[in-house]
Specification:
- It is built from no helices and ten strands.
- It is an all-beta fold and about 140 residues long.
Length: about 140
């Protein structure tokens, strides 16, 4: 996953709402001799610059992948855990957190589609609102 990627980000801020599309750059690098990876995404949403940071690693005690995500767009830290799904050839991570007085759940699916492309989708739900796709990020590796 390490390298520099061009990304197209699509956001659905509410179920059924129109999509908002943005472009950016993702830089993924190895940390601590491959124990973790760090991703930084930089882009602009409606003309306003934003950044996200994520750190992901494999916990050998729990046999789960663990990711921590922060962004310049809010004050929350999202901590997800999950596994590699071998038959589906993808990672699936889940989180639960409190936002605006409600418990939200987030499910992130990381689908490598080739050595140079991948798709990441995050699905949200809260209260009685059923899960919806809130974010899709399409990655294309930059040539070296």
């Amino acid at each position: 996953l390490c390298g520099t990627w061009d990304v197209e980000l699509t956001f659905w801020f509410q179920p059924g709402s129109p999509a908002v599309v943005s472009k950016g750059i993702s830089t993924i690098r190895s940390l601590f001799d491959g124990l973790f990876i760090e991703e930084k995404i930089e882009g602009a949403l409606n003309g306003v610059p934003f950044s996200t940071l994520a750190w992901t690693g494999f916990n050998t005690n729990t046999h789960q992948y663990e990711a921590t995500r922060i962004a310049s767009t809010n004050t929350m830290r999202i901590a997800e855990t999950g596994a590699w799904d071998e038959p589906a050839q993808r990672f699936e991570l889940k989180a639960s957190y409190t936002l605006a007085g409600s418990t939200w759940t987030q499910r992130t699916v990381i689908q490598p589609t080739s050595a140079n492309t991948m798709v990441v989708a995050s699905y949200l739900s809260f209260g009685n609102v059923p899960e919806w796709k809130a974010v899709e990020i399409r990655y294309t590796r930059r040539a070296k």
